[in-house]
Design brief:
It contains nine helices and four strands, in the order αββββαααααααα. By secondary structure, it is mostly helical. The protein has a domain of 127 residues: set domain protein methyltransferase, domain 1 (Alpha-Beta Complex), CATH 3.90.1410. It has a two-stranded antiparallel sheet with strand order 1-4. The longest helix has 20 residues. The C terminus is likely disordered.
Length: 199
């Protein structure tokens, strides 16, 4: 199966999930792919001023309180209240861990949504060494290197420690440096490019 077919299937499952759970899209709005800006919502006809483009019920929004109330969130709270973790797990890191869990656990309520999130990013933290070489000597190169080191230190404070404490909840195949690196440096709470052990 080619990547376009896979992507189309994931998007259909996501749209079906939205509809089944009460989301409504304005009939003039279509989801399309643009070669420059990627996937987005596009008006197929003129919209009246003030028209709602869509309605997303609160129940579909992934929130910190939902992450805290999840099995993973409760386990993190227990770990934070013990002396088992090397450093307390912040709410932000809990959200990233929960995103990974939702992306990899096929039984997760948010699974179909997580499968549609971006798989590539264009900022320097995602560039390879050849791409980074154009920044040599700039403040951006130093900032990107410093941030990458900071993320690696944070990862090392979590893994493999969490996997050793609870391998079922934090499977090593899902919580790799590659996954964490992609998530911890995102600023918009998107699950990044990675493969789960169940894929």
């Amino acid at each position: 199966m080619d990547s376009k077919t896979v992507t189309a299937g994931r998007e259909k499952r996501f749209i079906d999930w939205l509809s089944a759970n009460g989301a409504v899209r304005h009939p003039a709005i279509a989801i399309k792919h643009d070669p420059i800006s990627g996937r987005g919502l596009y008006a197929q006809s003129e919209l009246k001023s003030g028209a709602a483009l869509g309605i997303i019920p609160y129940s579909l929004i992934l929130t910190l309180s939902k992450a805290r109330d999840s099995v993973l969130g409760r386990a993190v709270a227990t770990l934070n209240s013990s002396e088992l973790v090397l450093a307390p797990i912040s709410d932000r890191v809990l959200m990233y861990l929960y995103l990974i869990h939702c992306k990899c656990d096929r039984t997760s309520f948010y699974y179909d949504w997580m499968q549609t999130l971006p798989t590539a990013y264009s900022d320097p933290l995602h560039w390879n060494s050849n791409e980074l070489s154009v920044l040599a000597g700039t403040n951006m190169a130093a900032a990107a290197a410093a941030r990458a080191k900071q993320l690696l230190r944070r990862y090392d404070s979590l893994f493999p420690h969490l996997t050793l404490l609870d391998p079922k909840l934090f499977p090593a195949a899902d919580f790799t440096w590659y996954v964490i690196h992609r998530l911890l440096l995102l600023r918009c709470c998107y699950a990044g490019r990675f493969r789960c052990s169940t894929d």
